[in-house]
Amino acid sequence: HQSKLDFFCKLGYGKQDICKVLENLGQEALEDDVLKELIRMGSKPQALESQAQPSSLKLVARGSCSTSLGLKWLGEDYSDSSNHLRPIVIDGSNVAMSHGNKVVFSCWGIQLAVDWFRERGHTYIKVFVPLWRKEPPRQDSPIADQHILKELERQSILVYTPSRKVKGKRVVCYDDRYIVKVAYEKDGVIVSNDHYRDLQNENPEWKWFIEQRLLMYSFVSNRFMPPDDPLGRHGPTLSNFLSKKPVLPEPKWQPCPYGKKCTYGNKCKFYHPERPHDAQLSVADELRAKIGGPLSLGKEEEK
Fold first, then answer.
1. Could you list the residue range(s) of the whole structural domain that residue 22 is in?
2. Which of 34-43, 54-63, 197-206, 270-279 is the least confident region?
3. Greater confidence, 72 or 89?
4. Spatial contact of 109 and 219, defined as CB atoms under 8 Å apart
5. Residues in Cβ contact with 291 at an 8 Å cutoff, skipping those fewer than 6 apart
6. Where exactly are the zinc fingers annotated as C3H1-type (predicted)?
């Protein structure tokens, strides 16, 4: 009985099932009969049971990794495809008044600016507007398309800077300080035509940030148009200016204006397509090579 029990235990069957079969068939039953009875009872070896159960671990192809593991190893979140773009902080009052020709607070201009950055892929976009712009428009401060402010506020894009009335007089907080502070903390870009000179004098770090991260713009026939060179002709392009990791352009070699008539030889700083790139001979060595004479040696070798 013990030998049969050990034999079927090695095959992976449970002791309780084996004992039940031996009690039913008797201790003198053959091994084939015991095996048939175990199969009839539905008993399976432990190895087959483990294969039948769904595994919690997922196999991953060699050389690749799952998304979650890859993000943990890299320490970065690549779920957002626009993480390489800088946050955008828009001076809502400046943009709206610019679109309204400095006469009307045009909320449509804010919407045009937001849509332009959305199309580029920016996900962090904040617009700052004073709270009193929610009030009904007056003759001295007309507002156009005021419903756009409610829609942008619902999308968590528009932020109202605080303001209140004290004895009938409106007390307004300085919204420019909100704009510069948020853009500085987020390492983003300020969209405005204002230079914020008063804030530059307050903080030297803000001064550098405003000089390097201020994006000016123009409206051309209801089209929001920032410049292609925000920091001047010799500065970065607009795409590099709005990116956290700018892409450096490939160096372009300027061809030599003299062409094959150049007499500078290997000292020429321009590009010669007719010469090999690895080693350029001097003019004297080129002439000796054509004639078939020996090349010039260095001073130490001549000695």
1. 1-41
2. 54-63
3. 89
4. yes
5. none
6. 250-275
Smallest CA-to-CA distance from 219 within 110, 120, 85 is with 110
Residue after which a domain boundary falls, among 226, 242, 258:
242
Q: How far is CA 185 from CA 34, 87, 179, 188, 214, in A?
A: 77, 10, 10, 8, 14
Mean pLDDT confidence for 67-77: 38
User: Which residue shows structure tokens 């321009």?
Assistant: 270
Give every strand in the sheet of 88-91, ordered side by side.
158-161, 125-130, 88-91, 189-191, 214-215
- Examine residue 51 and state whether it is found in any structural domain, yes or no: no
Q: Report whether pLDDT(86) > 60.
A: yes
32 in any annotated domain: yes
109-129 residue pLDDT tens:
999 999 999 999 999 999 999
Give the Cα separation of 209 and 199 in Å (integer). 11
Tokens of 33: 């009969």
**Structural domains of the chain, count:** 3
Strands (DSSP E) found in the chain: 88-91, 105-106, 125-130, 143-144, 158-161, 163-166, 169-172, 189-191, 214-215, 218-219, 224-225
Residues 35 and 167 in one domain: no
pTM assigned to the model: 0.56
Tokens of 170: 């409106």
pLDDT tens by residue, 257-298: 888 888 877 778 777 777 765 445 556 666 666 676 554 544
Rounded Cα gap, residues 158 and 144, in angstroms: 16
Chain-centre distance for alpha carbon 25:
72
By residue count, the chain amounts to 303
